[in-house]
Amino acid sequence: MRSSFGCIMKILTFLYILMCGSVFGFDPAGPPPKKTLAWTARVLAHATIPLVDFESVPLMDALGTAGRIDIPKEYRVSVKVSDEAAVWDKVVTMKAKDISQIELLAAIAEQCELDLLIQPGVVILCKRSKIAEHGVGGNGG
Hints:
The protein is of the alpha+beta class and 141 residues long. It is 42% helix and 26% strand. Strands 2-5-4 form a 3-stranded mixed sheet, covered by helices on one side. It has a two-stranded antiparallel sheet with strand order 1-3. A hairpin with a 2-residue loop joins strand 4 (114-119) and strand 5. The protein is elongated.
């Protein structure tokens, strides 16, 4: 009797370990990445928002959607607005399917007449710069 009880306990323990092994030892994402400019550009280009349907949506709500990617926070690119941007009255209207995060942020910035400043791990929407107003290169003036 005792040996069959021991055998059953070993089988149950083995099954328990099999079922819980992935919970205890599997980390699919690995440690948080070092947020370099190359990493940031790669994430912005590959993170996709399945559906965007904005009809006169306040800028801050649109940015909330643009920054809400279905991955853990420590693996995301942060989206911020600079203090001097004066964006409280800006609204966004657009419809898109399967749009990359950078394409969505660029469209939002364009509609709100803002620039995108990309730094390691963060995208900042800021007031249009003089460079954008006058163009870059020899044709700008």
